[in-house]
Each structure stands twice: as structure tokens, then as C-alpha cells.
Write a structure and sequence with these properties.
mainly alpha; 8 helices; 56% helix
């Protein structure tokens, strides 16, 4: 998990004895899986879940911004190389954004480093995102560099 996301969870580790990894397997859970476990651990209501999911999404946005700023050509090109490795690298920011607009990837998966989990269309992405509780709030993406990857799912 990227640093800002780890910091989000570390607060609950230190003050509420929350464990961030799945001890049964020794592998870290994905960000949404860890968040779901945190919600159960904290016994949050639906309203509290929404509130804290937005805070988590802001940490995710910060993680992307610190690694990739899709409003800068070099970073946008780097994202294009990761997500579209067989395509020629775009030479302008607009061309990079157009290329990324055609990519259907879950933002949480992207932040967790799963660059090859791609979908054929927005419908398949929506189905996957809903099933796995990996829906990124648009409020958190409005002014961030992940906005280029955000798709209207519903």
C-alpha cells in the first residue's frame, strides 16, 4: 500500500488495535478489503462508512498524486506506459489523456499496483467494482490526478 493509505490505516492500528494485513495468509489485503475489515472492526454505521471511505479515497488520491500527476506530461506518459504498454507513448498531454480515457481500470487496483487488471468496457468495470466494493467516490477524484481514470459506473 502507498504511504498516505498506510497512514490512514496506521491511526486505527495504533489507537484501536486494528491489524492491517490478513494474518491467516500473511499477504496484505487490497485497500478496499482492508477498509471493509476496518469498518467491521470499528462497527461503523453506513453514514460513518461513507465519511471514512471519502477520507480513504483522499489518501488514495494523494498516493496517486505523489507518484503520478496526470496533469504533467511526463507522469501521464508513465501511466500510459504502465497501462498501455503495447501502444506508442503519446507526445502531448492531451493525447495521453485521450489514451487513458479509453482504459478501463479500477482506481483502487491501480493504487495497489495491479496495472494489468483491465476491463473491456465500462459495464465490465462497473460489475467488478460493485462486486468487490471498489467504487472510488467521484468527490475524491474531482481535483486529483486520478480523475482521468475515473469512469461513470452507474
Amino acid at each position: 500500500m502507498p504511504r498516505p493509505v498506510l497512514q490512514f490505516f496506521e491511526h486505527y492500528q495504533q489507537k484501536h488495535n486494528f491489524v492491517t494485513k490478513d494474518d491467516a495468509h500473511g499477504e496484505p489485503d487490497s485497500t478496499p478489503e482492508t477498509f471493509d475489515r476496518l469498518c467491521k472492526h470499528m462497527k461503523w454505521t453506513k453514514a460513518e462508512r461513507r465519511k471514512y471511505r471519502l477520507k480513504l479515497s483522499e489518501a488514495v488520491s494523494e498516493s496517486v498524486r505523489s507518484k503520478f500527476d496526470c496533469n504533467k506530461l511526463e507522469s501521464a506518459q508513465q501511466v500510459c506506459r504502465l497501462l498501455c504498454p503495447k501502444e506508442p507513448v503519446p507526445q502531448s498531454l492531451n493525447a495521453a489523456k485521450k489514451m487513458l480515457a479509453k482504459v478501463f481500470i479500477n482506481i483502487f487496483d491501480f493504487v495497489d499496483g495491479y496495472y494489468n487488471v483491465r476491463f473491456a468496457n465500462v459495464r465490465a468495470l462497473a460489475k467488478y467494482s460493485k462486486k468487490h466494493h471498489k467504487i472510488f467516490p467521484k468527490e475524491a477524484a474531482k481535483n486529483s490526478s486520478v480523475r482521468v481514470l475515473l469512469k461513470m459506473l452507474f
